[in-house]
Specification:
Helicase, Ruva Protein, domain 3, mainly alpha, Serine Threonine Protein Phosphatase 5, Tetratricopeptide repeat, globular, three-stranded antiparallel sheet, transmembrane helix, single chain, Rossmann fold, about 750 residues
Length: about 750
Amino acid sequence: MTDISRKDRLGFRLSRWHRRATAHLPELGLGGLVTAGGTFLLFQEELIKQLAGDLPTWLLAILALPLPIAAGWITHLVRRRRERPARPALAPMPFPDRPDGLVGRDAELQQVKDLALERGLVVVQGAMGSGTSSVAISAVWDLAGEARKQRYADLRGPDRKHPETALSVAQRVLRTLNRPPGGIQEPQDATAQVIEALNGTGCVLLLDNVSTWSQVDWLPTRVPGAHIVVAGTLSDELPQHAEPIQLGPLAPEAGRALLARHIGDDRVTQDPKALALLVDACLGSPLEIVRVGRWLAGNPNVPLRSLVDDLRNLSIDKTLDFVLNLSIKQLRPTAKQLFILLAGLPIAEVDHQAAAALLGVPSAGDAITELADFGLVENVRMTRVRVTGAFRDSGAAGTPQENAAWRRLVEHFAEQAAAYAARLPADEARTWFAMEDRVLLQVLAGAEPGRQTARALGRIADGLEAWFRLEQRHEDRLRAAAALSAAAKALGDERVQATAELRQCAIQLTWGDPRKARQHFTRAAELRVRVESWPAELHLEHAALLLAGGDEFTAVESALVRYGQALSGGDVTGHAIRMTNVAALLMRKGQTFDHDGRAPEARSLYADARAVLFRALDLAGRAGDPGAQAHAHELLALTHHYLGQGFDARSHLEQAERLYTETADETGRARCLVQRAGVLLEDPGHAAESVVALLEEAEPRLPPFGVSTALAHLHLGRLRGDRAAEHQDAGLAALSPWDGIAEPQQITELRALLQAL
């Protein structure tokens, strides 16, 4: 474990105090600045009187003009030498710059370009630090020199021990190609979208830092008029069509040339034999050669021979750590403290603002630059920093200083998540969450949440819920809610735990699984024993559960009444949702009356539901909630369909589909497609191919369970007799959450129709 001395720690604290004081200067305000400035001018006047009291008048007159000019010029020079501000993290991730002259990789570079033109999909594989990224980036620059034809995705996730899942990788690639990532349920669903986005464009897609082939095995093997390059370690076995270009150690001549580039020709000519021995000690790794070269460049007075003598007595596994330890000893206190904190983090990488939060200072740019110069950290993904692999988990963990730093980091992420969640769906907020969502998930799922981080963790979870709901990434929504529940339970915060359980209940209902939803609802209710103390959301989920689990309409109505009473008067969206659920209740009552042969009463209920939905639509419009508007339009389409008003039904269905598309709600849009297919099927002159096309577009976007999913398979089973058995099984599986529990009448009828296929 790397340690920091008391002297260095004192130096770090003094530096942090100075930076904090400087950062708080703007808080003085105009009055404070005038007061401080006036006091300073009085002292300055007295000082000038003391210094200039004995100078003659003619000399003072001569100095009066050039002195202000000289002072202004000196100030200008000082400001020019200051560090430029870091590049904003909200800009879209650009394609990396072309590497500055590869050494010893000309043959591999040409091979990548040739295979890209021949095959379309190329894999560049090599050990960590062998230069796979540099070779791949250089090849893509040669294949597509225009920025508009370059597409880049860095797949190196924030978790050091676990690579990103194939689904996460597919979602990141879709976002890179400007496609909604929430529209896929499985990685293979992204294959067709990648082909569609790249076909005939002349673009090159580079997937960098891939850990395993299983992350990208869903990629198309060829896209006409485009190229795909995969670069990384790829530890598992590759298929035959993806035979990789393997990067091995650098040849001795290339290694010496690379090291010479960093230390200069003068030192090379003084002791070429020592140079060769140093390259051998680096085992041909470009990363290690560069690291040794940077250290030697920063220590020009150290002879190469002395470093060789120090390394000669060490074993091979300790030679590289020796140089790194030399670098650490030369760090200034602030940089050393930052390195210790970063090395002990459970997160592999953070952005520069988060690094500053760890230190508790306004900016960490100088410390990061110092660490990067010694090769102790890597600057990745624009303004993000990652500790070099050799020193991961070497920091001090569990000490009061590290615990305080972790609390500052969690609070920093909470402030950022809350601020950007409030700006969604603005582009800058989307960009921030796209870069940080995996880091936020990992912070939320920390093994031992600090006692003082409960509120901050809740704000992080709220931000992730808003982001994942916008992207329709329900699996990630569930993961974030489960992590919040576990953290709240560990901290003994029942209110936050109840919120997390309710969130999981809502997600399971979205997935069409009332059994699991009931389990989470029960846990939330146990944390709120008295019904009077339930929050509004608990009453709403209770009503939704009752509606999904049977036809106990009186109990549903009672839950909706309690939901309305728990809402605040100014919650326009909440009241719109309440009215939409009341209309759904009326429609379900009408369906049961229809089934029992009571058509007039059913039509009356449908008409009442229509009136309520128009009021809900008006409220949702006043609240500016397109999701609530879309849901109201969707139910209005169904209501008009039951009333036999086909034109109005189609109109509302079109509005719902448009709004779901605008909000990237692929599940809602898929439900609309199933409804359109059902309307077409009732037309005697319908074209079967058109209906099948709608259902096949909807099916992969639907949740694994639920009425819409089962209905889609029922229609497909009737239209495609050769695959009727397959759709029968899939439809019955979609209704499996109701097996062995109470179910609504519509589920019973749908199950009977599927069994009759």
